[in-house]
Amino acid sequence: MTVPSHRTASPHRPVPSREPVLDVRNLRVEYGGDGRSVVGADNVSFTIGAGEIFGLAGESGCGKSTVANAVMRLLKPPAQITAGSILFDGRDVLAMDPRELRAFRWREIAMVFQSAMNSLNPVLTIGEQIGDIFTTHERMRKRRARARSGELLELVGIDPARLKAYPHQLSGGMRQRVVIAMAVALKPTLLIMDEPTTALDVVVQQEIMAQIGDLQRELGFSVLFITHDISLMVELSHRMGVMYGGRLVELAAAKELFAQPLHPYTQALMNAFPPLTGPRVELTGLADTPRTEHGCGFHAHCPDDRSDCSTNIPDLREVAAGRFVARTGGGAR
Amino acid sequence: MMAPAAATRAPLLSVRGLTKDFRMGGLFSRDRHRALNAVDVDIPHGRIVALVGESGSGKSTLARCLARLEQPSSGQVLLDGEDVLRTQKRGASRAYRSTVQMVFQDPFGSLNPVHRVEHFLRRALLVHGRPAGEDELRELITTVGLTEDMLESYPHELSGGQRQRVAIARALAVDPRLVLADEPTSMLDVSVRIGILNLMRRLRDEHGISLLYITHDLASARYVADTTQVLFAGELVEGGDSLALMDRPAHPYTQLLLSAVPDPERTEGYDPVLRAGLRAAVLTPESCPYEDEGTCSRTEPVRHTVGEDDGQPHWVRCHLYAPATPTARRVLTAATPEVENV
Ligand SMILES: Nc1ncnc2c1ncn2[C@@H]1O[C@H](COP(=O)(O)OP(=O)(O)O)[C@@H](O)[C@H]1O
Ligand SMILES: Nc1ncnc2c1ncn2[C@@H]1O[C@H](COP(=O)(O)OP(=O)(O)O)[C@@H](O)[C@H]1O
Ligand code: SF4
Ligand code: SF4
Ligand SMILES: [Mg+2]
Ligand SMILES: [Mg+2]
User: Interface pTM (ipTM) of the complex?
Assistant: First the structure.
C-alpha cells in the first residue's frame, strides 16, 4: 500500500576523476560604467573534474550567473574580467579570439540559461530550432539534421513527433527539456546549467533532474549546476560551493557541506529551507534587508562575533582535506 | 505552534461541491474544461490551510472563486454559514470583499510604481470606509514587519520581499478575517521567503486571521499550515493535519509529490528516472500502479478516513482505503453531470 522504494544503490554518482576540466582561478568580474563599479565576482577559484557535477549555490545577486557567463566568455561591457584565469582542458579561455570562441562555445561548453524555456523562438518549430544547430555547426544536410533532432528529443524523453510542434504547444517542463537537448546536441565536455528548474514545480523539476542525471551518465559530461536550492544541489552534486556577495565562502563535498556547514552564511542559507521531517521549529532564514555595499553585508546578522572580518569577506582557507571556508581566525569553530 | 483550540467552532468558510468549468473555444462552444470538480474544504477560524498541488491543478482557480473574481459553475461557498453565491448573486458584497482578501504571487505587478507605499495603504483603508490617519498607517506597516519610514518609499526602492509585505499590509487594511495567499513566496528570493511565512504565522497567532496558503512547496506548507489539502487535476485527493499528512501520506499522488522533493538527508542514492516513471503512471486510473482489478477505472473513489491528529481527520480519496463493503462506491455514469449555473 505504500509506494515501493525507489532507492537504489547510488546509480548516477560514479566517483569522478580528479583531472580538472575547468580550472577557475582568482576570478574577478566588475560591472563598470559611469565611475561606479559593482564587483560581480571576486577572487573566485574552483575546479571541475571530468564527469563531475559541481554546484554553485547562493541567493540571487551573489554572483552565480556572473561566474557562469565569464566561463562561457559571454560577459559584455560594462562587465569586465579584471583579474584571474580560466583554463579549460588546459587552454586559456580568456585568451581565445572570436574564431576560437565560436568553435569553443556549444561544442565544448554549453549553457542552459535561467528561464531558457522562454527563450525558444516562438515562430519556429522545435525541429527547425534543433536542426539549425546541426546545419550551422556540423554542416549537416537538412534530412540528416532532422533525423538527429528526432534522436535528441528521444534522449530527453520527448516523442520525436513533437519536432513539428511550436514552443507554445509544449508545457514548461517539455520546453525546458528541449533546451537541455539543444545544449547537449554537440556533446559538450561541460554543461553549465543556470537555475534550470527554478520556474518549474517540484514534480517537473524532479523529471528534469532525472533527465540530466541520465544524460550525464550516458554522455559523461561535467556539469556546473547553479541554483539557490541547497537541497536540490546536495542531492545532485558531487562537490559544491556557496557564494555570498561575489565571494565563495565555502567549498566542499556536497554531502559533507550539508552535514556540517562551517560558514555562518551557509548555515543561514540552509536555515532558510523548512525541512520535510522532524519537529516544526521556527526558522529565521536570512535577513530581508538590502546589503551594505562595502565589506560583508552579512556581518550584522552573523551569529558569531567576528570583528576580524567586518570589512571584507576573507579568502578561502583549507580547514580539512577538500574543505574550504572563508575565515580568518583559527580553524576551530 | 497551534492557535488556541478553534477547531470546535463552525468553520469561517466552507466550500461544498465547488465546480468550475471553463469554456474552451468560442463563445458558443460547448467544449468545457473542468478546472475544479466537487471541491469540499473548510477553513476554520484562525487557522492556516495549505492547498498544495502542481501547476495547472486548479489552485488559483479555487482562490479566485473564493475571492469571487471567478464565477463557479456550481457548488456553495458558505461564509459563517451564509451561502454567498446565492445571497450575493450579482457579485460579492462590500462586506464579503473586506472579509476575504487576496494576495497575489507577483509583488511587482500589483503595486503601481508611481505611488508611494503610503498611497496604497491609505487608499485601501478609504475604499472600505475606514479611518486612514497616521496611526492606522503606522500600525499597518509595522504589523507586516516594515518600518514607518517605508511609507515614504516607492515600490522600486523596496526588495521583492518588502514589496510582498506591502501587498499583505494592503490586504490587511480592510481588517479581513480570511487572506487567500496565492503562491505569495514563489517569485521571491529564497532569502526572504521564510520571512513571509513567519509573517503569515504571526497574522494567525496574533491577529486570529485565517489563511488559505497556496503553494507547490510542500515543505513550506508543512512549516506554516495547520492542515494541508492536496489538489490533483481539479480534485482534492487528501487532507489532514500537515505534519501527519507529510509523515504518512496516504494517496499515491501525495506520496509521489513528497518523493519528488529533493532531500539531502537521503543517505542512499535514488533513481529519479524510476520516480519520474511512477509519476506518469499515477496520472490515470488505467495506469495507477495501485489500482486493483479495474475498480478505479469504473468507479470514482470517495473519502475514507485514515487517521486523526489534533482533532483533525486525515482523509484520502482512493479505493485502496475503502472498507471491505462496496457501498461507499459511486458508479460513474457515461454522461457528464448536468452543470448547474449559479
Ligand atoms: N549587467 C550588469 N550590470 C551591472 N551589474 C550587474 C549586471 N549583471 C549583474 N550585476 C551585478 O552583479 C552581481 C551578481 O549578479 P549575478 O551574477 O546575476 O547574481 P546571481 O546569478 O547569483 O543572481 C549583482 O550585484 C548584480 O547586481
Ligand atoms: N480563464 C481561464 N480559461 C480557461 N482555462 C483556464 C482559465 N484559468 C485557468 N484555466 C485552466 O484551469 C486549470 C487550472 O488552472 P489554475 O487554477 O491556474 O492552476 P494552478 O494555479 O494550480 O497552476 C488549467 O488547466 C488552466 O489552463
Ligand atoms: S561577518 Fe565575517 S564571518 Fe560573518 S559572514 Fe561575514 S565575513 Fe563571514
Ligand atoms: S483510486 Fe485507484 S487509481 Fe486512484 S489513486 Fe487510488 S488506487 Fe490509484
Ligand atoms: Mg543568476
Ligand atoms: Mg496558480
Answer: 0.77
